[in-house]
């Protein structure tokens, strides 16, 4: 797979540049992980010796645990709802309908709008209606406005690529619309659906700015993390961050394994688009 | 007779089999349309309405006025902060694209060994929370941070540098770092789609590597490049986390000003006005990019 630019001189130059970028990407995170074992009260140096006490404290911290559980529950619901709604729209987009262009623009707009704008807009609206912000109302809806478009963009190419004649053939042979969907279309687009669900899960699990304005007095893990790094940064913050990173990457790794069982690993990576 | 009946039913049944899912259209579209109408369109409309009210010490003054817009125009502070945020965001976007493209090209077209592992390593930060990735710089750049400690220990400096953190430099550095995966991933995906045979053909026809790049690779990767540019720019212009954590007073951006109106300053109508300005600024820049590469091409690469 050598392109015309793969001459050895150019390849070396590109390779060295890429290595520098990998170092740039990983050095801060690795430093943070190392310092999460620092037996000292500051988040930086000096090195006060190795300890696991920050991890013990974090794992025993009820606030952190509850924030983590809220994050996971919210991300699961966001992931399921976004993928269902995204699938619906993707199916509808296979045919012409009035207002299709408008719908597409409305779907793309939340992606082109700075997160803070829609977050403060939503909280203003809720406030006007006299409703209190919280995890399962404002925060959930705020996440969905952001994740449903991603789900649609992930699922649509797969649905679009699928030959409608195959479904037409099934229908001609007497299969009802549900049977056609469940037995013909769904198995073919399942990897895309799973990739989209995985992606929406991590979008929601990691979401911060929207949540900050919309969650009221409750916590998700990023919100809890934010509160400790603003008020009391200690190696415990680095420990919580490290655990959160491990969880995110673990979920993605599990997802990729599940998908690569279907020889769809690359497609799952592509699900990260956007 | 039964046989004949089923035969005669054949015609309409066939015709109904294909277009009938029109009936499902409403079901497929309504939830999302409702979601976007109620929680995207309505909030924007509410903010637009709010921007004509002014907050006073007695509460919200409900006689419509252009007061917020007059404040916006008459006090140069707000225009300057918008320009500064635009300048930072454009700088960050250009830097991210300049760093991302060669790496993405290398991964898509040049790497042969350990390709999957290298891909996973470059994709992994994409899945890691950006608050955490911003925070990761604080133990590095702080007064007692790793950079200062190393420089002190090696005798390069004799007192800790304060300029590493809490200024515009640290904001740009960390934003480039945080948004880099959002540049690399879409560019990689668009380069990966380019058929290598096209490159071979262009070389066989006598094109220099540079000519092949300019005339074949670059145009074909334009959707990925535009997608990366839009994503990074929108994230940067609306940034709140990075300037708040590593920016200090001199690194403040428009997003922080907006957030203040909904927090300490408690001036929601002014915050709504500022939010609309930010949204328009972001959309204006997007529109410039979209004139070169249509949005549908960027977002619906199928």
List the helices and strands and how they pair.
The complex is a heterodimer of chains A (274) and B (302).
Chain A: H1 8-35, H2 53-60, H3 62-92, H4 100-112, H5 115-128, H6 135-161, H7 164-172, H8 177-206, H9 209-214, H10 221-231, H11 235-260, H12 265-270
Helix pairs in contact in A: 2-11, 3-6, 3-8, 3-10, 4-6, 6-8, 7-8, 8-11, 10-11
Chain B: H1 2-17, H2 22-50, E1 54-56, E2 59-61, H3 67-74, H4 76-110, H5 115-123, H6 130-135, H7 138-141, H8 146-153, H9 168-192, H10 196-204, H11 209-220, H12 222-237, H13 241-246, H14 254-262, H15 268-292, H16 295-299
Antiparallel strand pairs in B: 1-2
Helix pairs in contact in B: 2-15, 4-9, 4-12, 9-12, 10-11, 12-15, 14-15
Q: Regarding CATH, which class of chain B?
A: Mainly Alpha
Q: Order of SSEs of chain A, N→C?
A: HHHHHHHHHHHH
Strand content of chain A: under 5%
Overall spatial form of chain A = globular
The CATH topology of chain B is MetI-like fold
Concise account of the structure shown:
The complex is a heterodimer of chains A (274) and B (302). Chain A has helices at 8-35, 53-60, 62-92, 100-112, 115-128, 135-161, 164-172, 177-206, 209-214, 221-231, 235-260, 265-270. Chain A has 274 residues and is an all-alpha fold.
